[in-house]
Amino acid sequence: MNTRDYQALDRAHHLHPFTDFKALGEEGSRIITRAEGVYIHDSEGHRILDAMAGLWCVNLGYGRQELVDAATAQLQQLPYYNNFFKTTHPPAVRLAAKLCDLAPAHINHVFFTGSGSEANDTMLRMVRRYWALKGQPQKQWIIARENGYHGSTLAGMSLGGMAPMHDQGGPPVPKIAHVRQPYWFGEGRFGEGGDQDPEAFGRACAEALEAQILELGEQNVAAFLAEPVQGAGGAIIPPASYWPAVKAVLAKYDILLVVDEVICGFGRLGEWFGSVHYDLKPDLMPIAKGLSSGYLPIGGVLVGDRVADTLIEEGGEFFHGFTYSGHPACAAVALKNLELMDAEDIVERVRDDLGPYLARRWAELADHPIVGEARSLGLMGALELIDPETGERFDKALGAGNLCRDICFELGLVMRSVGDTMIISPPLVITRGEIDELVTKARAALDATLADLRQPAAEESIA
Ligand SMILES: *Cc1c(COP(=O)(O)O)cnc(C)c1O
């Protein structure tokens, strides 16, 4: 089968996630056929630097034989057995122990799921169950954030703060509220009230959380849920003032902290967990993605002692679980993935070498005429596109971000767009030389985007 054959069958039968089916059908999909290291290859023979690590997950890069071998060996030994009904198997037990070893000291239990969305569903049920067991069944509200992402199941969608998702297939799960996000460039510099001091803006976001708690009644609020750095929202790194101020608010009222580590966990920010980078000490941490470097699907919830002890001692049966909770092959691959990260000092390299190197090279892009801000933390980064004529954001109708993303693909780089924010999250095994290539290609793409956006105006003036 050639590219056109695949595109025809794809158009005829395949509904893609987060996709305008009709528009894609008219354009045709790009068919990815193989990959190695930080590069993917398509069916037309293009080799493309994958600066998104798939979907924020292929942290050890493509083509790791050790992970393939771990899956193969486990599939031969025991391809499937469940963890229901008083049974388990060695990979699930060993992975649980390894995760709790890596997690902060107050976290000693894990509940496995098949994905990050299921992890957030699980977390929601655990949090409400916890408070019911504590004699406070009215404590049900979860406060999350606008433009946060927590998955695509009904609970994941409801917890997330993506308005277009809420508008489809609702109504969302009840008793979930959203507060403003600590997105300084979007809402502190260019939002209402404009050009605020970033640290004052960070504190104002924490004040908004406190106001929401008081509005709902502190006795009704079960938990606050947030990503350490928002991923899908646009690689949004909060101002330094934000997390300490949020922690102070949560400490004032008796409210659990849930930190969604699905992207930030497993080395992305230069620590094993984003919570460690920001010193958050969360009560629960949903995990997935980088847990297995995406080789097989697996997620979970790391549960701190406060909640776990109550669920264990007082909870009786917890009526919740998935057929693939702790699937043996997925668990074996995740375990091997973590062992390789350990053995190769991946987390330390991101913190001490690759993260600072990317920060230096990425910041150079801030001098480009269409870049209003270049930010990064660990191996996650963003560029905010602005109109060089006005110094303001581009007219949304121009679709500058999507244009830049498409140009990147043509130039051999996967860089994603969220509105007019360009984001990267490359495999953690990327080399300095590959970071140089990434930055060179990103600059070329910015040049081409600027040229393209100027094109129509130039033609008009000629006419
Ligand atoms: C991707 C993501 C999820 C959902 O994970 P799935 O495996 O796609 O269900 C949840 N939270 C965050 C922060 C994510 O980035």
TrEMBL record:
InterPro entries reported for this sequence = Aminotrans_3 (IPR005814), Aminotrans_3_PPA_site (IPR049704), PyrdxlP-dep_Trfase (IPR015424), PyrdxlP-dep_Trfase_major (IPR015421), PyrdxlP-dep_Trfase_small (IPR015422)
Alphabetical keyword list:
Aminotransferase, Pyridoxal phosphate, Transferase
Its required cofactor(s), as named, are:
pyridoxal 5'-phosphate
Q: Which domain of life is it from?
A: Bacteria
The cross-references to PROSITE patterns, in alphabetical order and at most eight, read: AA_TRANSFER_CLASS_3 (PS00600)
Return the SUPFAM superfamilies for the record.
PLP-dependent transferases
GO cellular component labels: cytosol
Q: According to its UniProt record, which protein family does this protein belong to?
A: Belongs to the class-III pyridoxal-phosphate-dependent aminotransferase family.
Q: Which NCBIfam families match?
A: PRK07480.1 (NF005682)
Its name, as the record gives it, is: Aspartate aminotransferase family protein
